[in-house]
Amino acid sequence: MHILFLSDNFPPEVNAPASRTYEHCRAWADSGAQVTVITCAPNFPIGKVFDGYSNRLWQSEIIEGIRVIRVWSFIAANEGFIRRILDYISFMVSATLVALWVRKVDVVVGTSPQFFTICAAWVVASLKRVPWVFELRDIWPESIKAVGAMKDSLAIRTLERLELFLYRHATSIIAVTHSFKATLIQRGVNGKKIQVVTNGVDLNHFTPQEKDLSLFQELHLQDRFVAGYVGTHGMAHGLETLLDAAEIIQNRQGAENITFLFLGNGAKKAELVASAKYRRLRNVLFLDSTSKENVTRYLSLLDISIIHLRKTELFSSVIPSKLFECMGMGIPVLHGVPGESAQIVVGEKIGEVFESDNAEQLASRLIFLSGNVALLDEYRKNAIEAARRYDRVYLAAKMLAILEDVAKT
Predict the structure, then answer these.
(1) pLDDT over 70 for what percent of the chain?
(2) 83, 108, 228, 265: which has the fewest C-beta neighbours closer than 10 Å?
(3) Architecture of 2-200+391-407 per CATH?
(4) Are 247 and 223 in contact (CB under 8 A)?
(5) CA gap 93, 119 in Å, rounded
(6) Domain ranges of the chain
(7) Could you tell me the sign of the dihedral formed by the alpha carbons of 343, 395, 187, 318, in that order?
(8) pLDDT band at residue 143, thresholds of 50, 70 and 90?
(9) pLDDT in tens, 174-220
(10) Which CATH class is domain 213-390?
């Protein structure tokens, strides 16, 4: 079976769509499937092409059995609505044109969050007369409104009509959460064609490990309780709440040993760094993104991982992929996302939840946990055990079985 996968993110980018796509495609190639991925030159989230790559019309490479075709796109940083839309549309056009030259395809997959990539998958599949799959990673464009990037308007309503068109015309939809499936059914999409394959973790990469002592000393974290946020610093993540908590803790006697470590880049990072400097926060450390191969060194430093999204009803249907990576490494979590993902944290007993945007609650739980070694050890053990239930290899096999069924239609 030949799978043609369209995704505007792919390694060496390290965000969630890139990791999921790569890990699934690698497993499918290992299983004997022919896999072609069409993506763009790696540039996320700073909008600058990575070293060793160029933004050319067409370039091809083989990565662990996957044929990866990179096409030209208008490159923009992960900020600014108009520039990002131009980025998305340009990739849609380039991917569509190049995909037409990929021969003997059995099924086309397009992955969100933005669905201009999905438009390309629909067009390509229609022209090739093969079935296609909508991999639903986010309810877009609703998430644009949720983070305040754009208010309800004619443009948003037009995008929503396009969204429903794509849902209805997809041969199959693979959602990453059960909440997404329920939302689509409520909006009139046929539930029989919606399958759920959650995010998971590559247990060959994200495994328990001792603290990286050289990095620990380099960053002067000796005798510190390290609470870390690792990931995109974007509008959706509400990281101002973490700075508020850091300020509360800095001013609270007996909590001097707690350090907040931020690793990553994104549209809000410069603003966050400036805010921390203005507040004279001595317990905050900002670091730039690192490669996926290197990120586990930084994760090993964490005593606890903070996962947070802004307080909005839409995000109650989201399961951040970093939750599973923390499980794999045995890192307890403080989880500031309500809904399905919070149920996982509580049900698996791998950490604690706090209310989104509630800095006081986050600060109080951090102070409590920093002095409770026995409870943290219990959370670590539970996380390692729970990770086995979200093994990416198993989930990739589950999705491959769905694709094989779709290809027969």
Answers:
(1) 95
(2) 83
(3) 3-Layer(aba) Sandwich (3.40)
(4) no
(5) 9
(6) 2-200+391-407, 213-390
(7) positive
(8) low
(9) 999 999 999 899 989 999 999 999 999 999 999 999 999 999 999 99
(10) alpha beta
